[in-house]
Amino acid sequence: MERKTIDPATEAMLQRAEGISTLFSRADEIKPCTIGAEGSCCRICAMGPCRITGKDKEEKTGVCGATPSTIAARNFARMVAAGAAAHSDHGRDAVMALLAAARGEAPGFEVKDEVKLEAVAGYLGIPTEGKEKNKLAEEVALKALENFGQQSGQLSYISRAPAKRQEIWEKEGVVPRGIDREIVEVLHRTTVGTDQEAKSILDAALRCALGSGWGGSMLATDIQDVLFGTPSAIRSRANLGVLKEDEVNIVLHGHEPTLSEMIVAAASDPELVEYAKSKGAAGINLAGICCTSNEALMRHGVPPAGNVVMQELAILTGAVDAMVVDVQCVFQGLAKIAEKKHCLLITTSKKAHIPGAVHVQFEEDRPLEVAEEIVKA
After folding, report:
1. How many CA atoms lie within 13 A of 219 on its CB side?
2. How big is the CA angle at 298 (ends 295 and 302), to the nearest 5 degrees?
3. Model-level pTM greater than 0.85?
4. What is the DSSP string of 226-265?
5. Which among 74, 138, 229, 359 is least surrounded, fewest beta carbons within 10 Å?
6. What confidence category does residue 243 fall into, taking pLDDT thresholds of 50, 70 and 90?
7. What does the pLDDT look like over 64-78, one tens digit per residue?
8. Nearest 5 degrees, angle CA 218-CA 367-CA 136?
């Protein structure tokens, strides 16, 4: 049998799959589309989809006359816009959580790193002297939100880049103005009959990417440090062996630390630990998958059970009692495996539902209460 991984735990679980569909088996079954891989399939308008193929494909065009270069650039730019939207929307949620915490509207959340708060205020050009913690946090959140919707100028965090790099971006015209504006503009430019020059399209994609990297993504990192504490180096175990045979195993998977922070708090509640023991378990064990795993690891020492391609395999062990997910990187294939392996798949975001999962809406005005409901389930 062809070896599919260098990880012995993954290899062992694949041998136990017993005909159950996983990412690995589906990758074998599905042949990638070579036309799509080259960016040569255009499905942006209703006149297509137009597939540009053959030895003379460089001489061909879509129904509208779009060349292969234009089609490939549009496809790539739209992927950039989708990625920027996902990571920046995550950043927006973090900022909204900080704003709610500052106004006392999110019990359980508070500013945990005042030094980082003052640093972020400095990056955003906000004076800090003599300001009460929550007042400053509110100003930081409101200024951060402006970066999403502003229509002109440049993002606040662009000033953090090396001066020489800023000069290059300015010269090339790719300095992002507002996070959301650049995403919307890419989608507009790539609509049929709009921008039809590959270089122009790719310049817009680059500006959109910078808007995410030096906007939503960087804001998310800083704001999460303010809310949950700036992490430091920590030692942990890793891989599927962190699951425990005699405890209730809850796996956190997704991207939002607002959820994972509360699950960590709920899982250490003495009443819930006793509740688990009343059902015959020795306690409650938390583990992580993917990006949420990193958040829970670096602040609380919650060990990672695996990476993104191992999410189905964690459930396949039969040891996971619940996998709690929010947004991004969560496979729809989890639901069928969870059903077969007596595992609750719990979705928590209004943006991300999965057929066959149990949905428990995470609400930031009662975060710990919702987390306790999830852990008790």
Report:
1. 35
2. 80
3. yes
4. HHH----------SGGGS-TTSEEEEEESS-HHHHHHHHH
5. 359
6. very high
7. 999 999 999 999 999
8. 45
